[in-house]
Every structure is written in C-alpha cells, then in structure tokens.
Amino acid sequence: MTHLQIRTLIAVAAVSLLTAACAKKNAAAPPPPAPAPAAAVATPKPAPAPVEAAMKPAPAPVAQTPRMPNAATRARIDQLLARIEDAYFDYDKASLRPDAIKALQADSAELRDILKDYPAYKLTIEGHCDERGSAEYNMALGDKRAEAAKDYLAQVGIPAAQLNLVSYGKDRPVCEDHDEACWQRNRRIHIVALAEAR
Q: pTM surpassing 0.90?
C-alpha cells in the first residue's frame, strides 16, 4: 500500500471515528433543559366590594296596613254587630239551631271582609244561660255555646284567632222573669267588639 493510500485510509478512519464519536455524543447528551417556568404571576385579588347597602340608597319604607281599624271602620263594625241578632239555644243544649245560624249569617260576610284586614282587632263571643242549674254547670254550658258560635263564624271565614270566648253562665240575664219565655231569651250568645287595650 502506498503512502498516499495509507493516509487516505487513516483520514477515512478518522472521519468515521469522529462521526461515530459525534453520533454517540449527540445520543448521550441530555436533552436541553426545559425553559424555566415563567414566574407565577400573582393575580391580585380584587379588593372586596364595598358593602352594597352602603352604596345603595335605603329603600323607601313600605306602607304597612294598620292592624287596627280607624274610627269610621270601627263604627261600621259596631253597626254590623248590632244587626247580628243574638243566637238562641234550646234548654240544656249548645248546638246551633237553624234560627241561630240565620242570626249569625246576617252581615257575617261583610264582617269577615273587614276583619281580615285588621288582624289585631278582635271580637268577643259571650255565652249565656238561663237561671236553672248550678253556676258551675251554666258557666260550662255558656262556654260550649260560645264555642259553637265561634266554630260557625270560623267556617264562614272570620279568623278564629280574632274571636275570643267568654261565658257568663247565668250571671247576666237580659230578662229576670221566671218563665220559659224569659229563660229562652237568656239562653243565647252575644257578639261584641273586644275593648282595645290602651
């Protein structure tokens, strides 16, 4: 082999070695580092919103319906109560008779329509008895009669919470004769407006 061939062969071998070495170097080289993460940009939290109530004008007060009727309405209620006749009961009974129901029906619809607008206004249903029987018995019977009237009035729509009961038993007769005609007049319920607390 000639000197030129040897040099050529050495050159080719050197180039091959360099190429192989470079290839190994490239293969062994670690991948380039990932770009540094961008510094986390702290998103500023929005300042707390001012209290909305402080920003908005106060709402206008809502006009409230009065809980008690004015003088004109009270006068109308008194007229209706005066027209509603006392409801009468049979001897020793607390159930409403047909004539008692008719008496309670009179003007009760208008009374109901007025009272529903005034929840603090109350009526009192008084229960009465004739003179026969003990005071205790008649107090209980008067209470049952008032309760029967209250139940009926609640059925026609008068709020039960606006109906108070009281029994006078035989203590407040409208008639003091000692006969059946008088006793019948005393076996009754009577409705009045409850006196307002001052």
A: no
